[in-house]
Amino acid sequence: MIKVTFVSADGVRRTVEADEGLSAREAALFNSVPGIDGDCGGVCACATCHVHVDDAWIERVGLPEEGSMESDLIQFAEGTTATSRLACQIPMATELDGLILHLPELQH
Ligand code: FES
How far, in Å, is the centroid of ligand 1 from the Cα of 98? Predict the structure, then answer.
């Protein structure tokens, strides 16, 4: 199991465990972590699973590939930063054990 910590906009930390291959969106939703809507079901079509990858993890997680659906769609998320990703596009992998993701104040 891979541990991932979601930090809400007001600083509440929730650490959950996810199987390899699940997305960070699924890790949040399956564990009732508030702050990730994921309205499109995880098919990269809504941008309501926006997260800010912790600075210490962005190199390992990586940025959306240029020209990808994610890089096009993420522009519609509010308050994006240099470490913004869509959680449905972050697959849980053993090298991401301990990952920290910060949640935006709003998803719309
Ligand atoms: S769940 Fe819709 S874009 Fe991620």
Answer: 22
